[in-house]
Protein 1
Amino acid sequence: MSDDFKEKEEMLLARAEKGDITAPYRLGTLYKTAGGGDKNLKKAFGWFEKAAKAECVPAYFDLGLMFLNGEGTKKNRKKGMELVLAAGKKFDVRSFFFLHGVYAEGLHGVAADPAEAFLWAHRAAEAGDARAFLPLSKRFIGLARESRDGTQDPTNDPTNGPTNGPTNGPIERLRDGSRPDAAGDPTFAGVLRPPGTRAIASPTSETAENLEKAFFWARRAHKENIPEGTLFLSEFYLNGAHVPPNRKKAFALLKKCAMKHKLPSSFLPFAALCFETAKKNPKLWRQGFRFLKKAARTDSPVAMFLLHKLAKDSSVPVKISQGFALKNLKRAAALKFPPAWHELALRFLAGKGAGKNGKKAMALLKKAGAKGHVPSMKLLSEMYRSGELVKKNDSAANKWAAAASRASGTSKAATAAKAEKKSRRASGGDSEKESRNDSRK
C-alpha cells in the first residue's frame, strides 16, 4: 500500500465517521481508481452504495456501472439501469452520453429507442460533452429528412459514422433518388455527391431549421478536433446542405482528415476531390492516386473498383499497370462487391487477364444480379434470350429483364405513368374531346 493512498484513505475514513456526506463517495472513488494492490472493487461498491443511500447523485451513476459490469458485486442489469437513469434524471452529466449509447444501440437489456437516444445526446451536447456533438448532428439530419418527407427516416442511425464507400451518410440521403451512376456502379462523382437537388435547394422551414442545427453541431465536433466531425462537416459543403456548396472548404476539411488525422474513411472522398481539382492543378493527380491506393488498403471495395476503372482510362496521367488493376478488382470481388463480380465476369467472357471461362462468368453474373446489379441482370437477360453460353430460355430472359426494370426504377415509373394516364382518361376525357371540338371550330 502506497503512503499517499494510505494517507488519503485514513483521512476520508475519519471524515466518514464524523458524518461528512461527501466522504463515502470519495472513498468509493479512491478504492475504484487506485492503482496496483490498492484497488479494491468490493470496498468501492460498498462505499458507493452508502453514498447512494444518502442520495449522493454522482454515486448513482458509479454504482449503476458497477452493477452493469459486475464489478465488486454480482451483475444486475435491471438495478444498474435504474441507478444510471436516476443519475440522468438528477442531471449527472456523466450519465447523459452513456444513456445515449444505451438507447441508440439497445444495450444492457434496454430496447433501442431513437427518440430517447436523441434526448440524451442533446443533453450531453448541451452539457459540453464533445462525444455527443457528431451523433446529435447526424440525428438532426435525420429529422430534416423526416420533416421534408413527412415520414420517419428508417436509415437514420445516430451511431453511424462515415464509411469507406461512396458518401452515403445522412446528408447524402437528403438527395432524391441518388445513385452512384445510371448502372449502379461507383464513380468519383458519386463519391462526392454533387449538390443542387431540389430537396436541399427548397427545404421546408422545419427542414431548414434542422439542417442549421445539424451544421452547428458538426462544426462544434470539428472545432473539438474530432476527425469524424471534420469529415462529416465536409459533406455539408459538398452537398450544399444549409450552406452554399463550397469545394474549396470541403477540400481543406478532407485534406485535414486524410493528411493530419489519417482518418481511413476520408481517404476515398479526398482522392475523389483531388481528381476533380486536378483539372485546374495537375499535381493533384498523384496525390489523389496515392490516397486512392490508401483507401484500397483499408479494404474499401469501392476504392479497389475505382482503381481498376482508372487503369482503363487513357486520359489519366498516372500509369496503372493492368496487373495491379486486376489484383484490386479481384480483391473487391472477394469482398462480395457486385460491380466487381460483373467486371470479372466480362473478363472471363473475353478471356482478358483471367482466362476465358463461360461457366465462371455466368456464376458471377448471377451472384451480381441476385444482389441487384442492373448491368448483370440485363446481360443475363440478353444471354438467355440469344442462347449465348447458356441454353436459350425466354422465361429466364424475361425474369432477369423484369428484375433489371424493377431495380432501375423503370417499372415503377411506367406504372405511375399508366396510372396517371388512366386517371386523366377517367376524369378529363370529356373535357379533352370538347377542347378538340372547339379547336376544330
Protein 2
Amino acid sequence: MNAFVRLCAMMILATMVAGAPAATASASTSTPGHRATATHVGSTAKITVQAIAPEAMQAMPAADPVLVGAGDIAGCASAGDEATAALLDTITGTVFTLGDNAYPSGTAQQFADCYGSSWGRHKARTRPATGNHDYVTAGAAAYFDYFGVAAGEPGKGYYSYNLGAWHIVVLNSNCWAVGGCETNSAQYRWLVADLAANPVTCTLAYWHHPRFSSGPHGNSTAVLPFWQALYAAGADVVLNGHDHDYERFAPQTPDALADPVLGMRQFVVGSGGYSHYATGQPVANSEVRNSNTYGVLKLTLHPASYDWLFVPEAGKTFSDSGSAVCHSVVMPYRASLPLVSMAPLYSFKGTKIEATTPLAKYKTADALNRVVRPTVPPNRLARPWPHNDSNALAAW
C-alpha cells in the first residue's frame, strides 16, 4: 500500500506540472484492489482512492503472457547462469529452456547443484527442452527426473501447451534418442497431428539444435522435417540453442529462402550462461548476432502478434528488440487448411509462387481441401493461397 500512496503522490505532481496555476488537471491509475484519481484545481490537490470489488477485478483484462528463457545454461564452474537467473528474478511469465540445461553431463548431481542453484528457483514455472549434454546421462534420465511432468513423457521429451492465444510446441532434436525426426518417425507424426488439432492464430516451437546458425555447429539438416511441418501449418517463431551465442534471423522458408510474409523467424538463444561461442561468416537471412553477452529472450505473446526483447546480463549493453504479426492475420484461410501439399494448385519457383491450376473454381477452403494431396514434398509446402502471384490472387 505504501508504494500505491507514493504512486498517488507522483500523480499529483504530474497534474500540478501539467496544469497552469488556475487550471484543472486530473490523472488516474489502479493497482490490484484499488483505483485512485488525483485532481489538481488551482492550488488545491486531492486524491480519491476507491476499492475495486473482486468481481470487477476479475473483469479487468489480464496482461498478455510472457515467455522468457535461453539454452545452454548451467555449469558449476560458470557464473553465467547466476547472471541470467538474476534476470529471470525480475521477469514474470513462463520460463523456457532450449536444452543443455546442466553441464557437462546432465547428471542428477549437476541438475541439483549447478542448475538447481540458479535457474532451479524458477523450476515451478519452467517448460524445458532437452539437449545433447542432457543425454550424456543415459536416456536423459536425470533431466526427466528433475523436471517431472513439465518435460513431457519420459523417453520422448516432445509435448505442447497453450499460452494465452498461442500454441507452443516443444520438440526433441536428439533424433537418435527418440526414434528419429524424419517424416516417418513417431515424433514427426505426433507433430503433424498436434498442429492439425490446434489451428490457432499464432504458433511457436522450440528445441535444441538449430536449423540455421552462424555459430560453429552451423545448420542442421536433421530438423528440416520439423521446419517443413511447422512452415506448412503457418507457425510463426522457432527458438533454438546449441550454439552458445545469440542470433536472430529474418523470416524464411525451411530451405533458407527469404519469405517476409509467411516465413518463420528463428532465434538462436544459446546465451543461458555456460560459455560463449564465436560466430563465423553469417549464413543466409541472419540479421543480428552476438557472442559475448549472456542473457535471456523475452517474448510478449499478444493475441495476433508478438514482441521480442533480448535482455542482457548486468553490466552488458547489447540488446535486440522488435515486433511482428502472426501469419494467420495476414493469411486468414491458413488455419482452416490441412497439412498437405498444395502442388496441384501452385508450386514454388525460387521466391515466387506460380499457379499450376486455375483457382477460380476453388472459392472456399473446403473446396481446396478436396483437391490437395496428403503428402508434403520438400519444396512444395501447404499454403492457403498464392500470395506472391497477382494473377492467381485475382482468380481467387
